[in-house]
Design brief:
Oligomer: single chain
CATH superfamily of the largest domain: Clavaminate synthase-like
Number of domains: 2
CATH class of the largest domain: Alpha Beta
Low-confidence stretches: 1-58, 69-74, 210-215
Strand order of the largest sheet: 6-7-8-18-10-20-9
Structural class: alpha+beta
CATH topology of the largest domain: Double-stranded beta-helix
CATH architecture of the largest domain: 4-Layer Sandwich
Mean pLDDT: 82
Number of helices: 10
Helix content: 10-25%
Length: about 425
């Protein structure tokens, strides 16, 4: 038997899922990937991730997402194929989904899921600085990138010894080790005005106008609707972000939580007809507000290459698929956001406005696909910008700030053969 990634099996004539393997085989690979022993269920129920998902059905856990990437091909594996960046691709040239190595062993790096659809928190004993120093740090960080790509966002508590430079290093390596193109590095935000404190690739999140290198809009520009802030980082760039990390060094006594929502789960709330229509659409994203802020407050707009040769100039606009495939997981999710998405290109303006408002509400109005995180001092969040959106909560007084690093991925694409998360789990559990 040969382990294959899901994307490499999409066009195979005969495939088997993980559940077709022997119990001993399944136990070996479940333990390797999740740190948990596999045990057969007492009976085989109908798939719980059917289209008509019961409200009482158990939602996927971290171990379920690990299983999604396991397939067994009875006909044997093809020779690996690679693109010009050295990334493995499938028979059609799309990136092959990644399989974890087992280096991020849950017994060594304990963690727990915060919500069924999104969010995993590591035990405070897990320190990112120690992971960087580990002899197998590359394997651990690659597996961490895979975990983040499935779970959306992960949290590390009390990262007191982690420096801003180490935060940037972790973020950059997550992208590199999970297959980012060679031309993609760390992003330079167009409003980053001063790099003297922490280096040019480390941004500042601050609610103080005078903060050195601050990148976030000011208090007098906030909407009265808290949900207006939902966004995916820098989706206005031709090559947007895949991973972002934030370490909070200044917190108010209470408030200032951040929410994340799963784009995978938002996609799954679409009717089949709506999903099919949107899978053929693109949308324009732009950030004209940053140019206005730069002019108003005297910030220089960064017009040089912002982490990728395509992210250059003062035209802060790009067109991306409305439904996007995550190259790490092979799963598809909704890729529009209220802050930067302005128009679905294939629809009339009136149609676009109505559809976009509905899609925004799929994110903001569904708390079952969200996780809300209460920050502690020196906590770190790392999230997938490919498959999540996030929103800060401005319910506090006093300073709130942190160090931020953003890595760049690929030009967004939609793979017609990609699956929803439910479809992938159904296939993994199929008889």
């Amino acid at each position: 038997m040969v382990i294959r990634t899901m994307s490499s099996l999409r066009n195979a004539s005969t495939t088997q899922t993980f559940d077709h393997a022997s119990p001993a085989y399944r136990s070996t690979y479940t333990l390797a990937l999740t740190g948990r022993d596999w045990s057969p269920p007492p009976s085989r129920p109908a798939p719980i991730f059917a289209t008509a998902l019961s409200h009482s059905a158990t939602l996927p856990t971290e171990s379920d997402f690990d299983r999604v990437t396991i397939n067994v091909n009875s006909e044997g594996a093809c020779e690996p194929r690679y693109d010009e960046d050295g990334r493995e691709v499938d028979e059609r040239g799309f990136p092959a989904t990644l399989v974890p190595s087992g280096a991020l062993d849950p017994h060594v790096y304990p963690r727990s899921d915060l919500a069924p659809a999104i969010g995993t928190e590591f035990d405070p004993s897990v320190q990112l600085a120690d992971i960087l120093d580990a002899p197998n740090s590359a394997d651990i960080l690659r597996d961490l990138a895979i975990l983040i790509s499935h779970r959306g966002v992960v949290f590390f508590k009390h990262q007191d010894i982690l420096t801003p430079q180490q935060l940037a290093t972790v973020t950059k390596l997550l992208g590199e080790l999970s297959g980012s193109p060679k031309a993609s590095g760390l992003h330079i935000h167009p409003l980053t005005s001063d790099f003297s404190e922490s280096g040019e690739f480390i941004g500042k999140i601050s609610n103080e106008r005078e903060a050195n290198g601050a990148q976030i809009s000011f208090a007098d520009e906030r909407s009265n609707f808290a949900s207006a802030g939902w966004h995916t980082d820098i989706s206005f760039e031709p090559v947007p972000s895949n991973f972002a990390a934030l370490r909070m060094h200044t917190l108010p006594p209470t408030g200032g939580d951040t929410l994340w929502a799963s784009s995978y789960a938002a996609y799954e709330k679409l009717s089949p007809a709506m999903a099919q229509m949107l899978e053929g659409c693109t949308a324009t994203h732009h950030a004209d507000m940053f140019k206005e802020q730069a002019s108003r407050y005297g910030f220089p707009l960064r017009t040089e290459a912002r982490g990728h040769p395509l992210n250059v100039g003062d035209h802060l606009s790009a067109s991306h698929p409305v439904i996007r495939t995550n190259p790490v997981t092979g799963l598809k999710g909704l890729f529009v956001n209220k802050s930067f998405t302005k128009r679905i290109n294939e629809l009339s303006r009136d149609e676009s406005n109505i559809v976009l408002e509905y899609l925004y509400r799929l994110i903001s109005d569904n708390h079952d696909i969200q996780v809300r995180y209460r920050w502690g001092l020196s906590d770190v969040a790392i999230w997938s910008n490919t498959s999540t959106q996030h929103c800060a909560t401005f319910d506090y007084d006093g300073p709130r700030g942190g160090d931020r690093a953003v890595s760049l991925g690929e030009v967004p694409y939609y793979d017609p053969a990609s699956r929803s998360r439910k479809e992938a789990l159904e296939a993994a559990y199929a008889v």
